[in-house]
Structures are given as C-alpha cells and as structure tokens.
Amino acid sequence: MPRQPRQFEIDGIYHVIKRGVEQRNIFLKPQDYHRFILGLEFCNTHTATNLWPLVGSDPTQLGGRLAEERAKKRTPLVELLAFTLMPNHIHLILQETLQGGISKFMQKLGGYSTYFNKQYKRVGTLFQSHFKDVRIHDDIQLHNVFVYVHTNPVELWESGWKKFSVCNTDNAIQKLEQYWASSYSDYIGKENFPFVTTKDFFLKFFGDEQKCRQAVEDWIRLKGGQANFDAKMFE
C-alpha cells in the first residue's frame, strides 16, 4: 500500500530531522554545507529551483547572482525558523504556512542528493527514505526545541552532552558561536545567513537576541541531572 501523504497543521510548528542513509555523512566539505544552505534559501518556493548556476558560479560573481535571485518574487512554502546542519543529519524548525508546504520543501531539499552524487562520483540513495517530524505543542517545547536544535553541534566536542555531561562549558559555548552551519549566529546578532531564516518569531518569543543567547548558554551550563527536558523528545 502506498504511503499516505503526511498532514501538517496550518500554522503548526514542527521539528524536522533528516538523516543520511545508514547514518553516513552527507556533508564532507565546507562547500557541501554551503550548497545545502543555498537550498534552504532558494528551494523555499513553489516554483522550480535550479541551483546549478549558483553552485557553478565564479566566486567573484556569486554575490551578484545571489542578489538577482533574491530580487525575484517568491511565495515561500514554509517559514524556516531555525536550522542546524550536522555531518550526517539536519535539524529544521519549520512552520506550515501553506497546505503541503513542509512536504514539498523537504522533497525539493532532497535534490541535494544529485549534487552530492555528482560531486563525489557516487550513485544511490543519500538520505533515509523518510524524514522525522515532531509537532511542537506548547511554549515549553518551543523553548526546548530552539535550544536543542542550536546546541546539537556540542556533540562534536562533548560526546556526553545528551546525558547532560558537558565537561568544559566555556569551550563548548565558544565553539558553538563559531559553528557557522546553523542559524544560531544570526539569532545572537552575528549576521551569517540572514536571508535563510525568519527570525521574528523566536526573537519575539524570547524577547531579544541576548535572551536567545542566554537560553542556549544556560542549557550548556547546566550540570548533569539538572536539565529540565529530555533530548529524546526531539530525536
């Protein structure tokens, strides 16, 4: 029996996770992360998207090409509220604003597989067949999913972070601010990918950029056993 299309509630907010098949790495070089982030920005539209002219642009001309693309009128499929790219998976916080928007957006993002296979001369599936989604129901979940998505890179330096065991909190905070493949920098006032995410929602929710930073840093500084949420809620 064919799989039924997923139903997402209009204005509903969802934590979406997409993993590499067999948990393989889906980003091998910095340019791979950049290519996927281009997709986050320019695939968020109903119209067909061809990123190859941007990917293959002379770096000296890329700024002009991006400006041309951004000047085009587009109707977004979703509100992209936050993202983090990890070596073998991605985290997105999406709001369904048009019926079928999240499903269509995720389908279009799957085009990254074509780029990856061509880049690394491989064939076959890159992503697991289905993405996972978790509906966010209340303010507590909303707070926690923002923190969880943006602190995910801590795992790269502190393997015990999901068990609330961060050995060097200052180092983790510093490295997290330097981790550019996410929307965290933009939320704390360090312009990184300003055209990718819609920040107004979470800035209003937390109050301002400093409170976004504080929410993330407070979590990192918590000692084992003192955390007030379970990471498994969002996996």
Automatic annotation (TrEMBL):
Residues in domain Transposase IS200-like?
A: 9-152
One GO-annotated biological process of the protein:
DNA transposition
Matching Gene3D superfamilies: Transposase IS200-like (3.30.70.1290)
- Output the Pfam families linked to this UniProt entry: Y1_Tnp
Gene Ontology molecular functions: DNA binding; transposase activity
Which InterPro entries does this one have? Transposase_17 (IPR002686), Transposase_17_sf (IPR036515)
Name the chain's protein: Transposase IS200-like domain-containing protein
What organism is this sequence from?
A: Candidatus Wildermuthbacteria bacterium RIFCSPHIGHO2_01_FULL_49_22b
User: Taxonomic lineage per UniProt?
Assistant: Bacteria, Candidatus Wildermuthiibacteriota
